[in-house]
Amino acid sequence: MEVLRKAFSQKLDPLVSEFVNCVEDDESFITDDIEGSIAHSQMLGQTGLLTPEQAENIRQGLQELSRQFSEQQITLKPEYEDVHMNVEKYLEELIGTDALRVHTARSRNDQVAFDLHSFTCRAIKRSISLLQSLQKQLLSIAEANTDVVLPGYTHLQRAQPVLLSHVLLSYISMFERDKSRFWDAFKRADCSPLGAGALSGSSLPIDPAISARLGGFTTYFNNSIDAVSDRDFIAEFLSCCAITSIHISQLSETLILWATSEFGFVTFEDDVTTASSLMPNKKNPDPLEIARAKSGTICGDLLNVLMVLKSLPTGYNRDLQETKPPLVNSADTLHLTLKVLAKVLSSMEVKSGKMLEAASDPFVIATDLVEFLVNKGVPFRTAHEQIGELFAFCRSSGFNPAMMPIARLRSFAPELTQEAIALFDAKLSANAKTSAGGTAAVRVEEMLSYWRTALGSN
Ligand code: ARG
Description:
Layout: H1 14-20, H2 23-26, H3 30-46, H4 52-70, H5 83-95, H6 108-144, E1 149-154, E2 157-163, H7 164-189, E3 191-192, H8 208-214, E4 219-220, H9 224-229, H10 232-258, E5 266-268, H11 286-309, H12 324-346, E6 348-350, H13 352-359, H14 366-375, H15 380-397, H16 406-410, H17 418-421, H18 426-431, H19 441-454
């Protein structure tokens, strides 16, 4: 069955029809589309463009369609091109001629924009809520491990001892910024385009403020051309997803490294690890590797949308249809990845002994010795050189600096005293970093309590 082609003398070529229809992508927008149609038709009723009976008949019909779609009694037909024409045609079959009035003062251009705004707002809220759950989970792991010390790394080389809680809190901070970026994007996505028509508005006495409110939006467009052609709210949502996915990939990579025999800092239960077809010894952290890789998928989606938008001329262009698959894909991928990450974290065991063993490497105390000397009045650069020479000697000779007699230590740094020997203690070293935002237990406790309140984990 052909739709909208009364003015055409030929049928649409089947290949072209297949190429331009988007019913598969539109599966994700059925609910939004029906809600938009209800908001629009109610507005038409309130402004006198439909009688109250017509508006009510349309509303009931649309609600019935919503039920039929959700119970899969009806599905989108490709010959109707998109979700909008499908809903209109099904409505006509269901309620008869009142359905012919539902498209009054409306175009598929403002309709699809409504669907996309509505979908994006929902996806943003879901992203924030999943991130919040992940933060709470990281917080509870941090709280259960407040006395665990491990080496902090720079350049993936052991640097200085830090608390495990401090490392976990660093990810909570990253995810907090991600949430705030999503909220920021929400403010701009929360804007109804209904009433913009094809691009110029309408000569009929519509009221976009009413359809915005009924459609669940805080505000509505101030320029009808912009309303139908704007997709930067999608690019913005995807860029939030992309940055979040990068953080997820960083956390995943850290955990993958920590789970190696070389580190041995964590283990995962069997329900989240996978087997090798050849090597019976293997337990692989595949979900974390997939999570790490999904950042590539999501960043690709962002680039996809930006490239679709680049160089579009003013007004609506069909190219915009191509922003739907990356939008849906990124939202689904991010949400699934966050849920999987939560599952993996709940199956993680912290090996505090292994962490302490690695943090007890005397070389990670070098900076503490430098700061000891600075406290004795030695200029920082001089102290840095003296301790540098001491550790170079230890490295080449195999001496453990923690075991060297004080007299030998003083031959490198004359201001060192017996007290300095006591510094070779990873926990003491971590707990000495009391400066603001530092890793000392006293600072970490403050931050744990801050996050407990901020995340509502009390
Ligand atoms: N399916 C289109 C989209 O997703 C909306 C329809 C607008 N089509 C048109 N010929 N004006 O963007």
